[in-house]
Amino acid sequence: MKILVLNCGSSSIKYQLLEMEPQPELLAKGLVERVGLEMGEFTHKPVGKDKYYTQTPIANHEVGVKLVLEALMDPQHGVIKSVDEINAVGHRVAHGGEYFDKSMILGPKEIEEIEKLCELAPLHNPASLLGINVMMKLLPNIKHVGIFDTSFHQTMPPEAFLYALPYEMYEQKKIRRYGFHGTSHKYVGPKAAEIAGLDYNNCKIVSCHLGNGASITAIKNGKSIDNSMGFTPVEGLMMGTRCGDIDAGALIYIMDSEKMDTKQLNTFINKKCGLLGISGKSVDMRDIRAGRDAGDERSTYAFNMFAYRVKKYIGAYAAAMGGVDLILFTGGIGENAWFQREAICDDLDWLGTKLDIEANKKYAGEDGIISTPDSKVKLVSVTTNEELVMAMDTYKLVK
Description:
Layout lengths: L1 E7 L3 E8 L5 E9 L6 E7 L5 E5 L4 H13 L12 E8 L10 E2 L2 H9 L8 H14 L4 E6 L9 H4 L5 H7 L8 H15 L7 E6 L5 E6 L2 E5 L20 H11 L3 H10 L2 H6 L5 H9 L3 H25 L4 E5 H6 L1 H8 L11 H6 L5 E2 L8 E4 L4 H13 L1
Parallel strand pairs: 1-6, 6-8, 9-12, 12-14
Antiparallel strand pairs: 1-2, 2-3, 3-4, 4-5, 7-8, 9-10, 10-11, 13-14
């Protein structure tokens, strides 16, 4: 059974085609970029064949999706002969609200609910809807499945997900913490527990997904009980261009003093803050580290702030769970930036962690235990694969 998974952004389409039987196997993956702009870019990577790249105008998501399907069937760089070989499509949807507590086969009712949630996620859900509607139009005779970033976190208790606002704000407008990166946290938790020799359903895990977008989840006995992201993915950790936790009063002051409207403020907190805002140079942790090592003050601030804030959340979630058995690092920074992991783990020995310096360097971009044998808390580097989770959820539902 072949499953196509789609992750649609406002101007991009990320995809993978997998054969699910007898075991999941990647057939091709790629990226459509700059949708709706004057000139688009398309990169297609079939397994066992040469990469295909082109620049061409991509007016909208329908044009982009057609490019993907044509590439998958192309005699030179394709991996299927007909779209009839695609048995189902899994669609990533950022915000599932309280309605979607698990992945679901999409029908009119589910589409209607996703449309309602566009109000909660105006930057993300409309793009997902575009991809869903286009693909349903092009492939109407197969099942389409929605995989929701928020669904894994629907096990959070009220004390974790409620904000200290008038309760009517939750009842009437559903303003609460939803948490994000659920697809990744759902995948890496059991994987890291297996690497560490622990029972996933009977242990306490702090899962650190660290990348351009970053979040931390407290997983207790196989269930998410808290996540650092909130009503939107802006809350929580310092990220590539997102500000993370900030005094709401500071935002009101910035709006007034800079004469910003809400749209400008939204762009500001999502696109101009975080590592980029502090360093003034880059969102790439390698560049930040190089700047720090060269004595650049702002790069040093950015590097240290990132590590400090991750460390704070680790401590907070250990307290929330009454201890911790495993701390995992995943995502672009978490998997690869061993030097940032080292900074985060510095002075965490009070928690029972002992970082193995050499193992930490060895397992950059690879799965492995990075703590010493006598460490009470296991530290694990683990690679994530959100597309595989999407494909597996889709496969289970349509099977």
